C-alpha cells in the first residue's frame, strides 16, 4: 500500500531532493557520492529508502548507470529550483549582490581558454576576490541545466535555444605558415601544395576541414592534431601550414599570414548560461566583465 499524500510530504525532505538531484546529475552512485562528499553505499541506501517511502522508482538501473524516471526528473527539477533560490537567498542575506562570491565553474575549449579567456582573467579575479574559479576544458557543450558547469564559452552561429547569453564578438580565421618553414620552400610554391596541418579525425566536421576540402581538395594533411591551439603550435614551430583563428595567432613573430581572414569561417563567440542561474551575483559579474574585456581581432595586421 502506497503512503498517503500527507505522509509523502513529511517523508520527502530537502536532503532527499538534494540526493535525487545529485544522482540525476552524476548518473552513477560514484558520481553522486562525489558531488555530495559521501561514500557510494550512503547514496545507495538513501535512494532505496526514498523510493520505498514514495512507493515509486525514481531511477532505472543499468550497466550504464542510473537514469531518472519521469518522476525522478520532476523531483530533480524541483530540487534545481530550490538550489537556485537558496543561492539567491544567501546572496541577499550576506549582501553579495554588491560583492559576489562563491565558486564559478566555466567550461570552454583549450583554444578559447588560452587564446581568449586567460589573457584577461587576472583582471576579473582582482576585481572579484571572493569569487573562485573552476575552468574545465572540453569540446563538448556540457549540460548547464544539470549544473555540470555554470557558464559555457563556445564558438557557434546557432547557440542552443534553452540557454541565454551574449555574443562577445566574431572569431575570424586565416591560413598561416611558420616563418622559417616558409623561407625553406621553393620560390613561387603555392601554400596549397605545402605540408598541411589539420585537426584530427575527432573533429571531422570542423569548418576549417570543410574549407580546406572545398578549396584545396588535393591537399592531403601531412600532420593531424587534436585542437586549434595545437595547429597553431605546429605552424609556428615549422611543421607546415594550417588554418588558425586570428585570436590564437595574433602578432606571433614566427607566423606569416598566407590567406585571409576567411569570411566563410567567421563564427560567433558566445558566453552562455541556464536562465535560472543567469542573474546570480557571480554569474552576472562574469557576464558583465566578458562583455567589455574580450576584444577579438577583426583583421590581420599589415
UniProtKB/TrEMBL annotation:
Alphabetically ordered keywords of this record: DNA-binding, Transcription, Transcription regulation
Coiled coil (residue ranges): none
Keyword Cytoplasm: no
Presence of keyword Transcription regulation: yes
Domain HTH lysR-type: 12-69
Pfam families in alphabetical order: HTH_1 (PF00126), LysR_substrate (PF03466)
Taxonomy, superkingdom: Bacteria
Stated family: Belongs to the LysR transcriptional regulatory family.
PANTHER family: TRANSCRIPTIONAL REGULATOR, TRANSCRIPTIONAL REGULATORY PROTEIN
Protein name: LysR family transcriptional regulator
Organism: Massilia phyllostachyos
Lineage, opening ranks: Bacteria, Pseudomonadati, Pseudomonadota, Betaproteobacteria, Burkholderiales
Amino acid at each position: 500500500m502506497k503512503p498517503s499524500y500527507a505522509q509523502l510530504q513529511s517523508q520527502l525532505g530537502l536532503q532527499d531532493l538534494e540526493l535525487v538531484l545529485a544522482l540525476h546529475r552524476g548518473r552513477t552512485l560514484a558520481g553522486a557520492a562525489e558531488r555530495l562528499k559521501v561514500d557510494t553505499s550512503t547514496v545507495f541506501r538513501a535512494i532505496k529508502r526514498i523510493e520505498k517511502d514514495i512507493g515509486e522508482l525514481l531511477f532505472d538501473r543499468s550497466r550504464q548507470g542510473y537514469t531518472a524516471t519521469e518522476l525522478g526528473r520532476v523531483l530533480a527539477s524541483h530540487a534545481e529550483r530550490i538550489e537556485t533560490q537558496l543561492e539567491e537567498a544567501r546572496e541577499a542575506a550576506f549582501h553579495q549582490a554588491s560583492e559576489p562570491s562563491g565558486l564559478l565553474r566555466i567550461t570552454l575549449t583549450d583554444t578559447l581558454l588560452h587564446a581568449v579567456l586567460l589573457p584577461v582573467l587576472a583582471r576579473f579575479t582582482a576585481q572579484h576576490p571572493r569569487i573562485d574559479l573552476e575552468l574545465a576544458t572540453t569540446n563538448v557543450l556540457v549540460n548547464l541545466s544539470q549544473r555540470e558547469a555554470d557558464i559555457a564559452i563556445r564558438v557557434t552561429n546557432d547557440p542552443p535555444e534553452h540557454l541565454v547569453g551574449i555574443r562577445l564578438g566574431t572569431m575570424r580565421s586565416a591560413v598561416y605558415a611558420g616563418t622559417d618553414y616558409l623561407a625553406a620552400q621553393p620560390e613561387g610554391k603555392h601554400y596549397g601544395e605545402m605540408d598541411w596541418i589539420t585537426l584530427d579525425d575527432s573533429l571531422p566536421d570542423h569548418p576549417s576541414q570543410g574549407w580546406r576540402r572545398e578549396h584545396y581538395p588535393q591537399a592531403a594533411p601531412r600532420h593531424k592534431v587534436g585542437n586549434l591551439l595545437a595547429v597553431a603550435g605546429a605552424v609556428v614551430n615549422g611543421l607546415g601550414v594550417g588554418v588558425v583563428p586570428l585570436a590564437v595567432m595574433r602578432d606571433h613573430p614566427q607566423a606569416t599570414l598566407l590567406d585571409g581572414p576567411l569570411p566563410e569561417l567567421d563564427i560567433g563567440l558566445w558566453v552562455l548560461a541556464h536562465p535560472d542561474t543567469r542573474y546570480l551575483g557571480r554569474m552576472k559579474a562574469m557576464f558583465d566583465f566578458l562583455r567589455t574585456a574580450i576584444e577579438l581581432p577583426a583583421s590581420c595586421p599589415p
